[in-house]
Amino acid sequence: VAVDLDDGGLPRDFALNVSSINISPELVAIADNDFKQLAEGLGYDSFVINLQVEGGYETGKDRLTLRTFAIDAPEVGKFSLAGTISDVKASDLATDQSPDALANGKLENLTIRFDNAGVVERALDMQAKMMGASREAIVAQLHGALPFMLNALNNPSFQEKVAKAAQAFLSDPKSITITASPAAPVPFQQIMGSAMTAPQSLPDTLALDVTANN
Fold first, then answer.
1. pLDDT per residue over 124-144, tens digit each?
2. 49, 79 in Cβ contact below 8 A?
C-alpha cells in the first residue's frame, strides 16, 4: 500500500497491490452451493486472485482519477476499471457526506474491460454439454439470437455496436471493452434520471462504445 498526501492531508496519489490470494479447493468446497456448482461446472477447483488499485486526486479541481482497478485470476480472466470523476470533494468522501459527494459528482470518462484467460471457453463448453451440442453450435446460436436479445435497448445504432462486438468476442474470446467518453462531464444525477426515464438515451449521452479483441 502506498499513499502520497498533499499539504492538507488529502491523498493525491494512492496504490494498493495484493498478490496471490489463494482460494483453495477446501474453500471452494464449503462455499455457497450455487458458486460451488458453477465452479465445478466450469472445471475449477481453486483460484488465485491478484488485486491492483491505483489512482490520484486533484484537490484544486475536485477530480478523482482511478487509473486502474483490476482483479486478475489466471486461467479465468481479468476485469479492469478506470475512469475520472469531477466535482467530488475528497474531504466529504471520508465523512457522513460521502453519498452526497458522489451523487453531486460528474462522470468525465470510464473504461470497463474484460480480458479472457479461459473462462469463456469453459462456459461455452459447459453450455454445449448441457444441450448436447458442440461449442461451435452454441456460438452460432448466440450469434443469431443477439440482435433480437438487444432489441430491449431501443437504440438501433448502439445495438449494432454491441452485437458486432459480442459476436466477434464469442468467435474469438480475447477481450471486450466498454468506454464512455462524453463531450462534457455528465452529472451522476442526470445519468440516474435518464436510466429511470429514458434509458435508450444513455448510450448517446455518454458516448458509449463497445469493442472486442483490441
1. 999 999 999 999 999 999 999
2. no
